[in-house]
Design a protein that fits this description.
heterotrimer, A mainly alpha (362), B alpha/beta (363), C mainly alpha (309), A: mainly alpha, ABC transporter involved in vitamin B12 uptake, BtuC, two-stranded antiparallel ribbon, 15 helices, B: 363 residues, alpha/beta, Rossmann fold, 2 domains, six-stranded parallel sheet, six-stranded mixed sheet, 11 helices, globular, disordered N terminus
């Protein structure tokens, strides 16, 4: 009989090897699914994983698009990972993302059509503030009333969604839009837009912010006393208290950082790639980022790679739908499988598998 | 096709395939691509566009290649999908939802040699962008007539999606023609604020039925309102929307409006093949076969059926316009004088109910 | 009568509209009481919706359809259970992955079933009882799943409160280490709770595709699973409150459509966000009272258990 034994510290070898193993397993299982759908599995896998990066026809466009798609995922996931490490569970990033976009776009649209250099920076501040304030609600409720932050932050997502539809039908609706729900297009209002900075690179301010967040989080966790406190609070809450960590402060700080980063992601998305506030502006980045944070093992570099991998399956999946006629649903199921396998094989880096000599009850 | 050329042109962000450069010369083979907002299995809006794509394939056989992508969210993802389609060698791209308006125009700017066709929008910022829509209000007139004749409670209902001119136009047309044959008729409008959410559409239909409504028209895409009406064992009737929804024949589905994009898609791809393609803004209806009235079933008395069909034929012949004066606005002010026909501009920006409808358009 | 709305019709409509979320919420409530947080309710519901639909269409039997729906939901829960209980994967991430996977897989499975009508789920014949004014319409005019959903609330309440099974379940949810030390098989108990939760979510999903909408279309559950999650919290993990919560959520959406149909002018978005605000308020009041005990949240919620020996 097999038995699990917890490793004293996660295995370095398996931490590197498990993602590769998971991708291989997904390719096998996904290939079987594609074959069952009557498609050539090798072609499908190649289209998803290879073509966005190296196909002569698309890659020059798809490669930068990876950054566009991964940018918000990484930015949000970095913020979430700090809280997760400290045992503070903000799963409402989707709502904070929406509120960041609403605040930011609202500020930008308030100036329309004026042209000042300070409009975009002000929007950035407003976006971060929108996400921060939305995260502060569960944070304050937790510190003052001991309410569970998982649940409150999740509930705040629904409220944000209702705000979003109210705003896109009402206050922020484009007066020249023929009555259609949705705001003015910010990409056509230069003072408030977040364009591609260097043509053909996909690089916009959101991507740059994501990279900066990765570096900052890395330094924080490796070098700074605060990073040490965060890790300590997650691993040994009682020890953390003796070490002088203020739990209330930590909750407010971690929720605040993650909310502000999610709000920033929303602002950069609405002023850049999405262009406008609309009823279905949010496409689930806030939830996907939770998965990205875990796939990256809450490690900044890991999150960077996990975000890029997720983006690859999105973009490769789009190509596969369109080139091979694979149904969109097959791609969704494929992504689900990839996550299952990544989560499953993670066991190998934290536990040792032993063959028990005598039968033991688990 | 030459791979190297493709790479070079793609990198420059320019168009593809030299054959397309001069559309006046026609083409030997066209790759026609479609972007859908929903799944092709929605049996409504997207399903009908996909039927159009299949009709193009059927019509031209080897001379066209069809590619499509379903469930494309409006916004950032749409722009990427469109660009990837353009890079893959599509010659003409149909974008079949209003929300693709800005992405379509943005991508069209980068690929001047590729034709873009945007459904239901109004922006044509570049010479290679055309727009097309259908005069669904013509079908609503026929439905309104049937509704006015068939209602026993004198209460008819309409499930609105979003308060946009397209929908307001349909509500007005439906109400005017019901009122014409039944002066006592009252209209209840429920705004579902969705195009497609079966559970919510079913709830909306149920709310209307609970209010005593016995004829329901829907501007949302699923068959859920009909399924809800079916539970009343014939007491409540409704209409197929976007697609025929023939499964609910003969009742509760007594007639339907079918979006038939086939003629338009065949015409446009054909024009690209023979070199007569031009930028247009198309708004066709029953006369051109873009809006069809599905079979009126035996649940409708023969005389009502005959009147409805006569109205359809009059619209088809161009002898009747559903918005013919005198018509007043909801507040009692005059809109159309006796015998005047609504100008297209008024219809496309319609943001008022006609006289007799109670309730406001949500702002 | 208020605003031209018949209360009997309104109440009977909201009872039907709330069935899917009650079933799913009761399932999730048991799962969370066992200390497991499964955020994949939406994925399990939609798999229940598609499996129930396929089975009922193929077999021509609505009852078999509901069985199929429950099995479909439980099969999804099994994936979650194996991941979290045996492979010790993170519960939040696994639940989210489950939703993603379920949405995709259900759409693949349902492709050839679009546009078909399922067999009818009949109303329970109460004979003359259904003709009693008001109460006849409200209490005696529904199909059997409506009564099943209420019975499941009662049964769960009784099970948690009065049985040994309930006691063990709660013990596992409060402190898995203590439960383990007492000799309970934490993993097996949690696994069973997870499977139960999946089956209930599957039933709820099947009710949507077979009764409420009766048809299969992609994404038919459209967020009902997330609402079920919110209701569990609103209910403070107590079954009867879950019923109240589901009626509140179902009631507000039905009420706003009815108000519109009756011609009342209302701000739709603010009305539909009110249940969430009320839930947060309820949470605050309960948790600020007498510390965490009053909140009733299972202490081990969301934490994985590994018997170190």
């Amino acid at each position: 009989m097999l038995r699990l034994e917890k490793r004293p510290s996660p295995s370095r070898f398996w931490q590197g090897a498990t993602p590769v193993l998971a991708v291989v397993l997904t390719m096998i299982a996904g290939g079987l699914m594609f074959a069952a759908l009557g498609k050539n599995p090798f072609e499908a896998i190649r289209t998803i994983f290879w073509d966005p990066l190296f196909n002569a026809q698309f890659a020059s466009y798809s490669r930068p698009q990876l950054l566009v798609k991964a940018g918000p995922l990484i930015l949000i996931a970095i913020g979430l990972s700090l809280g997760f490490r400290a045992g503070i569970w903000n799963i409402g990033a989707e709502g904070q993302y929406i509120m960041g976009a609403l605040f930011g776009a609202g500020v930008g649209l308030a100036f329309y059509p004026a042209d000042h250099w300070f409009i975009f920076p002000l929007m950035v501040v407003a976006g971060a503030f929108g996400g921060w304030i939305w995260a502060m609600i569960p944070a304050v409720l937790k510190t003052k009333f001991n309410t569970n932050e998982i649940l409150v932050s999740l509930l705040m997502v629904y409220i944000a969604q209702n705000f979003l539809s109210s705003m896109s039908l009402g206050l922020l609706r484009n007066p020249e839009g023929g009555g259609f729900p949705g705001s003015r297009n910010l990409s056509q209002y230069p003072a408030a837009s977040n364009p591609e900075l260097i043509a053909g690179t996909g690089l916009h301010w959101g991507v740059i912010a994501a990279f900066m967040a990765v570096i900052a989080a890395y330094i924080l966790l490796q070098r700074h006393i605060l990073g040490f406190h965060i890790k300590l609070a997650g691993q040994a809450p009682r020890a953390a208290r003796y070490a002088g960590v203020n739990p209330t402060g930590l909750v407010v700080l971690c929720m605040g950082i993650s909310g502000a980063l999610a709000g920033l992601a929303g602002l950069f998305e609405v002023s850049g790639p999405a262009g406008q506030i609309s009823i279905d502006f949010n496409v689930g980045y806030g939830f996907t980022a939770i998965i990205v944070a875990f796939l990256g093992r809450l490690n900044p570099i890991g999150i960077l790679l996990a975000g890029l991998l997720m983006a690859l399956t999105y973009i490769g999946g789009e190509l596969a739908q369109f080139m091979l006629g694979l149904p969109a649903a097959a791609i969704q199921a494929f992504q689900g499988m990839l996550l299952f396998f990544l989560l499953a094989v993670d066991l190998l880096s934290n536990y040792r598998i032993r063959f028990a000599t005598k039968k033991e009850a688990l | 096709m030459n791979r190297r050329t493709l790479l070079a042109t793609a990198a420059l962000g320019l168009g593809l395939a030299f054959g397309t450069a001069a559309s006046a010369q026609g083409m030997d083979k066209v790759k026609a691509c479609f972007v859908y907002v929903g799944p092709i299995g929605d049996l409504g809006w997207t399903y009908q566009h996909h039927q159009g794509a299949l009709a193009v394939q059927e019509e031209f056989g080897d001379k066209v290649e069809i590619a499509y992508q379903e469930n494309v969210p409006e916004g950032a993802d749409a722009e990427r999908v469109l660009t990837q389609m353009a890079l893959s060698g599509c010659n003409i791209i149909f974008t079949t939802s209003f929300g693709y308006m800005d992405p379509t125009n943005n991508v069209a700017a980068k690929f001047p040699d590729i034709k873009f066709e945007h459904a239901t929008g109004y922006k044509r910022e570049h010479p290679n962008v055309s727009t097309y829509n259908a005069r669904f209000y013509e079908g609503r007139a026929v439905q309104g007539h049937i509704a006015g004749k068939m209602t026993k409670t004198n209460k008819i209902g309409y499930i609105g999606s979003f308060p946009i001119p397209e929908v307001v136009m349909g509500i007005n047309s439906y109400y005017l023609h019901a009122k014409k044959v039944n002066p006592d008729v009252e209209l209840s409008v429920v705004w579902a604020f969705t195009w497609f959410d079966p559970a919510k559409e079913a709830d909306s239909a149920k709310a209307l039925i609970d209010q005593g409504v016995d004829v329901i028209a829907a501007h949302t895409d699923s068959t859920a309102p009909l399924a809800e009406a079916a539970k009343t064992n014939g007491a409540v009737i409704g209409f197929g929307q976007a697609s025929d929804m023939a499964d609910y024949k003969p009742s509760p589905r007594v007639a339907s409006i079918i979006d038939n994009w086939n003629p338009y898609y065949i015409k446009r791809v054909g024009a690209l093949l023979d070199g007569t393609y031009e930028q247009i803004d198309s708004w066709a209806g029953i006369p051109e076969g873009e809006v069809e009235i599905g079979e009126i079933t035996d649940a409708v008395p023969a005389d009502v059926k005959a009147e409805a069909e006569a109205m359809r034929d009059a619209i088809a012949a161009g002898s009747y316009h559903p918005f013919t004066g005198p018509i007043n606005k909801q507040d009692g002010s005059a809109w159309l004088a006796e015998g005047a026909v609504a100008p297209d501009g008024d219809l496309l920006g319609m943001n008022f109910f006609v006289e007799g409808i109670t309730g406001d358009i949500p702002k | 009568m208020f605003g031209g709305i018949d209360p009997a019709l309104l109440i009977s409509a909201l009872m039907v509209a709330s069935v899917p979320i009650i079933l799913a919420a009761i399932g999730e409530l048991v799962v969370e009481r066992a200390g497991v947080l499964n955020l994949g309710v939406e994925g399990m519901m939609i798999m229940g919706a598609v499996c129930g639909f396929i089975v009922s269409v193929q077999s021509g039997s609505a009852v078999l359809g509901f069985v199929g729906g429950a099995l479909g939901g439980a099969a999804m829960a099994l994936i979650f259970g194996v991941l979290t209980q045996f492979l010790l994967a993170n519960q939040v991430a696994s639940g989210l992955a489950l939703t993603l996977f379920g949405l995709g897989l259900s759409s693949l499975m349902g492709q050839s079933f679009v546009g078909i009508r399922p067999p009818a789920t009949g109303a329970v014949p109460f004979g003359p009882l259904a003709d009693i004014p008001f109460f006849g319409r409200v209490l005696f005019s529904h199909d059997w799943v409506v009564y099943l959903s209420i019975a499941s609330v009662a049964a769960t309440w009784w099970m948690l409160k009065a049985t040994r099974t309930g006691l063990i379940l709660r013990a596992v949810g409060e402190s898995h280490d203590a439960a383990h030390a007492l000799g309970y098989k934490v993993r097996r108990i949690r696994m069973l709770a997870i499977l139960f939760g999946g089956a209930m979510a599957g039933l709820g999903g099947a009710y949507i595709s077979m009764v409420r909408v009766p048809q299969w279309t992609d994404g038919i559950t459209s967020g009902a699973g997330w609402i079920a999650l919110a209701i569990v919290v609103f209910a403070a993990w107590r079954p009867w409150r879950a019923l109240v919560g589901a009626y509140l959520f179902g009631g507000i959406s039905v009420l706003q459509l009815n108000l519109q149909a009756a011609g009342a002018r209302i701000p739709v978005e603010y009305l539909s966000m009110s249940p969430y605000l009320i839930t947060i308020l309820v949470l605050v009041i309960m948790s600020s009272g007498k510390g965490k005990a009053a909140l009733n949240a299972p202490a081990s919620l969301g934490q994985n258990f590994h018997a170190s020996r």
